[in-house]
Amino acid sequence: WILRVPFRNLYGEMIPHHVSRFQIWPYLEVFADEAKNAVLAEFPGVPDLVVGHYSDGNLVAHLLCEDFGTTHCAAVHALEKTKYLFSDLRWADMEHDYHFSLQFTADLIAYNSADFIITSSFREIGGTNTEMGMFESYETYSMPGLYRVQSGLDPRLARFNIVPPGVNEEHFYPAHEKDRRVEAVRQHLVETTFGENPSEGSVGRLDKPDRPAIFAMSRIDKVKNLAGLVELYGKSKRLRKKANLVIISSETDASRSNDIEEIEQINRIYELRDQHQLDGVFRWRGARLDKVETGEIYRVVADMKGIFVQPALMETFGLTVIEAMACGCPVVVTCFGGPAEIVEPGLSGEIENPNDHEAFADAIYRVISDKSVWEDRVRNGIERVRTAYAWSQHANKILSLTNLYSYWEYLNVMNRSSLDRYIHTLFHTVYRPRAEEMMRGA
């Protein structure tokens, strides 16, 4: 179940609004303390395992595990350092908006303190011949005026494990399994996403809503590259002639956002829509779908003989990719990050460089314009997810790793005393003072 613990300011007052991931750092230490008390009040004894997610969640998990004496599993989804060019060297110029001094310090603390680390793909650890891995980028770097790091995170340590997530088979199943689908949900999604009277927060119209849909769904930020998708679609005459572009994102109104990147990308999409005159072929819906709706929207796109695209400039894993594949929706995905390990090119989907607009558009057209290719990608995609991405496999691996690393901790295999001193020094001399300074300036 879910225990909800609020963020509080310096005066102990509850924060009543959303906090951007770049602004979250001053609240985490107090949050961890309150979360600890909530857990102890709710459950008998302390937990056997704490799993942290993302940079902020893993810092909280580190603080909890220090108090509980519990095994810490760090699940990695995204590390910002490799997403933003020269974000270490130019951290001071970016500090006002991104606060990388806090995030990168939190990463060093949290991931060094974890008993074991799970990633979704090898690329997150060691990268490729042409790309640096996310953890590899933390091994040696410099933040001028703050600190220089040597042996920051060692990707060769035996704490790293590749344990990809899975799909929930209750919600993500093939479109051809008609007896499992809920007609009321399907009809609602057709009307609110593709119809003449879309839901509030939708932008654009579809003159021919029954055409195949080139479909994307993600939050709005620069790395997700939804603006790049709009641009490559706008530049491709044959895509515009063959299919509609349909996007679902967290927001479509810049005035309702307090995230600088989200505002910038929303405005950019409007510029591209007007520049390429996409009225009649482009629908952009601002919505947060639940799991039932998410599974069904993929199936609706599959009913239309459409396609799901993932054009990110960097994607850690790509959960939406395996969800779409499980629902019988063929995929074209970015070559940067985890999706390139999920998809077998030419079999269960297509992999392209999203910076090469012509090549990415060609890959989309190749699938939606040829019925036999479309059906082949659907069939192979369903099988790929069924055999490689199941939550039962994920859970069993986590339990096995917990037993192994808990025993290692008992035997003191890692001999962590010097590492613990390093972690505490970073927390008390860098992280905490900068977080307090940020809170005072909020």
Largest sheet: 7 strands, mixed
CATH architecture term of the largest domain: 3-Layer(aba) Sandwich
Proportion in β-strands:
5-15%
The count of β-strands is 13
CATH C-level class of the largest domain is Alpha Beta
Please tell me how large the radius of gyration is: 23 Å
Cα end-to-end separation: 32 Å
SSE topology:
Elements (H helix, E strand, L loop, with lengths): L27 H15 L6 E5 H15 L2 E5 L15 H8 L1 H14 L2 E4 L3 H4 L13 E4 L3 E4 L9 E3 L20 H12 L7 E2 L9 E6 L7 H10 L1 H6 L1 E6 L10 H16 L6 E5 L4 H13 L3 E4 L8 H8 L4 E4 L4 H4 L7 E3 L4 H12 L2 H18 L2 H21 L5 H25 L1
Parallel strand pairs: 1-2, 2-3, 3-6, 8-9, 8-11, 9-10, 11-12, 12-13
Antiparallel strand pairs: 4-5, 7-10
Helix pairs in contact: 1-2, 2-4, 4-16, 6-10, 7-9, 7-13, 11-14
Short structural description:
This protein is of the alpha/beta class and 442 residues long. The protein has helices spanning 28-42, 54-68, 91-98, 100-113, 123-126, 183-194, 226-235, 237-242, 260-275, 291-303, 319-326, 339-342, 357-368, 371-388, 391-411, 417-441; strands at residues 49-53, 71-75, 116-119, 140-143, 147-150, 160-162, 202-203, 213-218, 244-249, 282-286, 307-310, 331-334, 350-352.
Describe, in plain words, how this protein is organized in 3D.
The structure is a single chain. The protein has 16 helices and 13 strands. The protein is α/β, with parallel strands linked by helices and 442 residues long. The chain has 2 domains: 25-165 and 392-441, Rossmann fold, CATH 3.40.50; 178-389, Glycogen Phosphorylase B (Rossmann fold, 3-Layer(aba) Sandwich). It has a 7-stranded mixed beta sheet with strand order 7-10-9-8-11-12-13, with helices on both faces. Strands 1-2-3-6 form a 4-stranded parallel beta sheet. Helix 6 packs across helix 10 (291-303), helix 7 (226-235) crosses helix 13 and helix 11 (319-326) packs across helix 14 (371-388). The protein is globular.
